[in-house]
Amino acid sequence: MEQLKTIGRELAIGSHGGWGQSKEFLDLVKSIGEARSKAEEDRIILREVESLRRRIAEPDVPRRKMKEYIIRLVYAEMLGHDASFGYIHAVKMTHDDALPLKRTGYLAVTLFLSEDHDLIILIVNTIQKDLRSDNYLVVCAALAAVCKLINEETIPAVLPQVVDLLAHPKEAVRRKAVMALHRFYQRSPASVSHLVSNFRKRLCDNDPGVMGATLCPLFDLISADVNSYKDLVISFVGILKQVAERRLPKTYDYHQMAAPFIQIKLLKILALLGSGDKQASGHMYNVLGDIFRKCEQSSNIGNAVLYESICCVSSIYPNAKLLEAAAEATSKFLKSDSHNLKYMGVDALGRLIRINPDIAEEHQLAVIDCLEDPDDTLKRKTFELLYKMTKSTNVEVIVDRMIEYMINISDNHYKTEIASRCVELAEQFAPTNEWFIRTMNKVFEHAGDLVNVRVAHNLMRLIAEGFGEDDEGAESQLRSSAVDSYLRILGEPKLPSLFLQVICWVLGEYGTADGKYPAAYIIGKLCDVTEALLCDDTVKAYAISAIMKICAFEISEGRKVEMLPECQSLIDELSTSHSTDLEQRAYELQALLCLESQAVESVMPLDASCEDIEIDKNLTFLKDFVQQSIENGARPYIPESERSGTSNVSNFKSQYQHEASSHMLRFEAYELPRPSPAHVIPQVSVPTPIADFFPVPETTYNSETSQASKLSSVADASSAAHGIKLHLDGVQRRWGRPTYSSSSGPSSTTSTEKTTNGITHIDGVGSQSRDKLNESRRQQPEVSAEKQKLAASLFGGSAGKTEKKATSTQRAPKGNTRNAERPGVSRSVSPETSKEKAAPSVPDLLDLGEPNPTSTTIVDPFKQLEGLVGPTPVPSPLDNSVKTSGLETPDLMAAVYTDLPPSGSSSGSFTSTTRDMHSADKTSNTATSEPSIKKGPFPQDSLRKDARARQVGVTPTGNNPNLFKDLLG
Amino acid sequence: QIHFVILISRQGKVRLTKWYSPYQQKERSTVIRELSGLILTRGPKLCNFVEWKGFKVVYRRHDSIILVILNLYASLYFCICIDPDDNELEILEIIHHFVEILDRYFGSVCELDLIFNFHKAYYILDEILIAGELQESSKKTVARLIAAQVNVTERCVSLAF
Question: DSSP string covering A655-719, please?
């Protein structure tokens, strides 16, 4: 060892002396070291890279020089600069026969190249040769490179040789070969699946280093498939026993611990094998007990082993004695002064309370200290612990704490996480509706742009449907309290978009419901929302729809709606908006205002967001019309599948496209929008485009949709229009449908919602266990009263409180099962299960707010128009706005006509609309049914109904077919 | 499993980086910047662990939280990024293990040794960690291997030059 030291020192000094590196390089390193700023450093390195680029390309660079260049390149790359021009030289250097150069080459390539780099293929051959070398150092260098560079494709090229090396006389080679196989397993499990027996064999290797290395692949294998390795339990326990009894060579000792790293690895493996297996766990109890007894508490590594033992004990089949020992070790961690140990203690506690929740109670004050610690890491870990131990009794305190913390951090990643945890806990354990709404408001206010959009939809639906109770009074009370709080919150200067959407929706639906606020007041507020600085199009759409609803409710109540000037200017602004969605909504509102109260009531029924709607999926009402058109000489509809075959060009293209898509990367340019003759038959092709266009709920796509539909309405106008239309068509198919299904998928019918509604679950079940905590809680006099109060609320509340909660329980079955589970006995799984359970519940709650309807409304009229548009189709943006009016009354249409600049075509489309309506209402189910064509049967049906139901609020076309009969018939 | 090892100086200068999981060059710079911002500002008495989110890519792959272990040696921070469920104290000791071996090799190592001989530090690291796992926990074995390599190198040097 002394000798090694001297050598090392000599080398280090020697390099200063210059045999290893030139003066130049030393100067470079020095100037970098002295650089004052990152910019200066970058300048120096850039200069260096330039000079290297020049010199490395010179012919006949001496090998020694080249080695230094390569090292300098490594240096440049390490500091974050691109040295890719030199990669090939590093690859060449691996071919060198001299070991130092070869090692430098390998070092450089392992640092430079990622596993999918193109140059790797050039190294494989060298690696193959080196793996066969007589010099074990060469083999070692090659194996190190294998671990880093060999990818899935090249594994077969070196696999046999690596397997042979498992029997190499040098243990270092065997060890690295094991690690290389482990890497292969990680890259592609199938490639080494037949070699598993080799790992088992190496477990009995004479050399402890090889044995220790073998534990790595075995750990992976066992976590993938526990049951095939149960037979090894005895061996692992035997090894651990020997290690703990110091049977390994002294060189493996580390800070007076016997081979701690091997112990830790073994403990991890045992935790996997013993999980939920009483018999296997039985073998482990003895040795684990030994480890607890022998473990050094004074050294860091001893604590590492101890912590791993706690993890193991909490994972295997519970044993009272071991749990006691683990709890004791945990409490030592928690009481330690070291933050590291406290951190580990909090983590260990989180594991132990899964088995026995009572353990937490003893450490409540320590936990609260951690929660109030200035160390952020510790704080977050403690929040994780609190999250695990949340019950209905302490949810208020915990969530309040979390929100308080959330407000004060700037780390978006963690903010998102803690916000979603708050939402999850609130949904699971909310004690009252008011509290729930208040909590959600806070979360939205402070992390609104970070939470999942579903949470917002969920909230809207909750407010719409109440909490699954049949108590009308409570529901309306909930709504008015929501309205109250939102009106108050609107005073805040900056609110996240998502939150504003919720507010607009709720104000629109229920703002005037309790008669507390006059319509004008609410409308004024909504107008204010749209004027806010950060108001995006989605919020505007929500706001204008809300205004429309309020107006509709007013009109149907027989009251006169007075148009506020700001509202009028909003409508004016939006009706010239670039967003066709907003534009349409504005025109819809204008049209609605001209209707009589009875019509309005049918169009926009009060509080109808939860109603079901019948849908005619087959568009039967269009049959007559289609028939008529065909008789008049229109071409019959050709299904899309047949259409692609109509032209060779498109055929070829689609084939080409298919080929291209099979590759990972596309190197060709995207093809131009292709003119396909297929779509030159818009006359009768009514249903298909609808199918294409309907399912676009996202507002982002709305503009496209409406554009597309507009185009399709004038499809036969010109070939140019065609090209574009087809292009968009493709867009729709690629993006539109999945979007629709993804967002509508999780929503559910009103009927199912009520039961799956995760939000409302509260439990009273937790109370017993908590009462126990209560009893045994010790008061420590030196602790401040405030802390004790906090502790009390976290770890056990007053009995009276519990009672109250229990009675206020009004939850769906799912909630109850979950609750029963948490405090119940089957601890070992509860956090996981609850998480799993929570996950599905979130999608269930999705409420498709307004955006969805929009897309529908946009589509409908055009589809109808499309069929009928006569010889003078005009692509007027007014088209869609007129839709509503067109549907209502001919009078209205006339009115609109006069209003609008008579752009020839619009008249055409109008008439066509009405005609369409006429033919349509024969079959009674009008526009509403179109979207359904796209929808499949299955459970989705119900979801759709729900989606439909939402729509009612906005879609005048949708709701009431009879209306049209009245109006038009 | 270890995702990367970074050595940074107290001034935030990179002294050594080793990536065991794939990161693009750009991601690497971001990682280093973010981590040095996070780690260098921490007080001395706080935990040696930091929960850190990196790029989207990063935290998706590891299911959000990654723990970074840091340690202060000779004004250098050794940072090792691991999965959330790994044993932090163990990693802390792996760092120490590495430092002890460096110490033996250089004879009470200092930052300067690592600056001028970073490639040697790489060789040593490669003998301790491979593919993100600890491969050898015996200091003696590692030292012997490194000595053998040094001898060969010297022989070659004396032969060739």
Answer: HHHHHHHHSSS--SPPPPPPP-GGGS-TTT--HHHHHHHS---SHHHHHHHHHHHHHHHTTTS-H
Nearest to A26 by CA among A81, A72, A64, A57: A72
| pLDDT, average across residues A812-819 | 41
**Which residues 29-68 of B have a C-beta within 8 angstroms of A?**
29, 32, 45-51, 53, 59, 64
Check CB contact of A186 with chain B, cutoff 8 Å. Answer: yes
How far apart are alpha carbons A519 and A152 in whole angstroms?
66
CA distance A275 to A290: 20
d(CA A12, CA B3): 29
Token pair in block for residue B69: 């272990």
Q: Does A620 touch chain B (CB under 8 A)?
A: no
CA A305 to mean position of chain CA atoms: 35
Q: Which stretches within A889-939 are classed as H helix? A: 890-899, 905-922
| Inter-chain residue contact B87 with A19, CB threshold 8 Å | no
Which of A686, A723, A722, A692 lies closest to A705 in space, CA to CA?
A692
User: Tokens 């692609």 label which residue?
Assistant: A644
Residue type, A157: A
| Pick from A202, A200, A213, A293: nearest CA to A252 | A213
Quote the pTM value. 0.64
Q: How far is residue B151's CA from residue A331's CA, in Å, rounded to a whole number?
A: 51
> How large is the ipTM?
0.87
In angstroms, the separation between the Cα of residue B31 and the nearest Cα of chain A is: 11
Contact B47 A3 (CB under 8 A): no
Q: What is the pLDDT of residues A248-279, one digit of tens each?
A: 888 888 888 888 899 999 999 999 998 888 88
A628-638 confidence digits (pLDDT tens): 888 888 888 77
Indicate whether A899 pLDDT > 60: no
Residues of chain A neighbouring B105 (CB-CB closer than 8 A): 4-5, 8
